[in-house]
Amino acid sequence: MPEATDVDQHGKPVESTSLIKALGSWDTLAIGFGAMIGFGWVVLTGGWLESAGTMGAVLAFAAGGVIMALVGLTYSELVAAMPLAGGEHNYVIRGMGARWAFICSWAITGGYITIVAFEAVALPRTALYLFPGLKSVKLWEVAGSEVFLSWALVGAGAALILTVLNIVGIKLASAAQTFAVVFLLIVGLLLVSGSFVGGETGNLKPLFSGGVSGFVTVLVVVPFLFVGFDVIPQSAEEVKIPPRQVGKLVVVSVIMAAIWYIMVVLTTASSMGVKDLVGSELATADGMGALWGTDIMAKVLVAGGIAGIVTSWNSFLIGASRLIFAMGRSKMLPTWFGRLHPKFRTPTNALLFIGALSVAAPFFGEAMLGWLVDSGSPSIVIAYFLVAVSFLLLRRREPAMDRPLRVGGRGQGGLVIGVLAAVLCLALTSLYLPGMPASLDAAPWILFGLWWVVGAAFFFRIPGGIKAGPGAEEELAKRFIERSNRSRDLN
Q1: 117, 317, 331, 416: least surrounded by Cβ within 10 Å?
Q2: Which residues contact 167 (CB under 8 A, 6 or more apart)?
Q3: What is the pLDDT averaged over residues 233-243?
Q4: 175-189, 234-248, 320-334, 412-426: least confidently modelled range
Q5: Please, which pLDDT band fits residue 94 given cuts at 50, 70 and 90?
Q6: Would you say 386 and 104 are in contact if contact means Cβ atoms under 8 Å apart?
């Protein structure tokens, strides 16, 4: 594709900050759905069934799906109205102002980066089940976790490949995403078919266990298995379908993820007794093997789990790079992050930064990466809350704003959705606090604090007094330019 050329008001060529529109409906849906289907469904199903029973776990996923769908509805209206790279960054700067936009963008960027780094560890860890010989040449231990050279090189090599794919172009990256998602769906069909072939309804018992406590135990995990639908807004500037359709795909991806997790619970439960599944390290894989009566099918499912890792990893790499690019383009972060590749028109510098972190991640072992993911989870929910608040503020302040997709109709339905989304996000955030069901250990809280200490250095660079509104982004850029000119004059 020929390189696009932008010019300034004097006709001189300038560096373009426009991304290429290359994503169709299926590409966009594959990015959102793929982000939500990682590897947890392979290993955690036994624990879900033990805690809540078959139908208890199903109800928890249905409830979690409703919560995330409410949040997704606020996103769907906003992405249709503002189809720009960076998603949340654009919504919050218009609804709440520049500094709140930084807080939101920094929060979700941290969450995305930790997930990308973790997937770089999850891939070689999962590959061990297919290739046990990967553990060779021990390097060191980190927090009690052994690190092996061959094992780490698998994760680092995959990180390098995915980074290069994304630099070469979003279309190539989305093609790889589509292939992995299709394979994942084929594995899902095999799981459902196996349930009809070898499943027994008697294995579904107990339908409920653990009472309210068991239900809540599963529910607090559910919303964070759905993190990823919000990657669609990050790539909205590269989508070549109508904005209204993009907004709909956000909610469709959430519904697809809910159906996927409910399907996994029901089919795995039908394969064998709960006690056998709880004792399994890969419950869903062992369930698949039992349904079809062969270990080969268990390995096929593990391969599907690897596809889930790749889809999630690729999606969050896309999302994080577009967020960092958007912050660099608005000068909240160094402008180096806001530059595009001259030929491929991808946010190369942002991708190189995240890619370098993911290449290094496997050399730090599993324990520290688990802490990183835990530390990023509260930040993601904080970002969801700020998006819901921005949704409400924009409904009140800009009633005439062009909204190709208006959720809740012309009445007060949209406000009810926004309030529910905000309240539920606050409730979810509270579950991480000490003494709560999803409370975090000290190490993740320390890493959470360190991320925000780094963020504070950039936060206080942002000029104060920039009011929310459609011109907030331009006013921010103007203020940064004025500051730069004053500094140059002084020197």
Answers
A1: 416
A2: 341, 344, 346, 348, 351, 352
A3: 77
A4: 234-248
A5: very high
A6: yes
Could you tell me which residues are beta bridge partners of residue 439? none
Planar angle of CA 405, 20, 231, nearest 5 degrees: 50
pLDDT number for residue 12: 41
Asked if residues 271 and 201 have their Cβ atoms less than 8 Å apart, the reply is no
Residue-level pLDDT at 375: 79
Q: Is residue 84 scored above 50 in pLDDT?
A: yes
Residue 239 pairs in a beta bridge with 23
Contact residues for 123 (Cβ-Cβ < 8 A; gap 6+) = 154, 155, 158, 306, 309, 310, 313
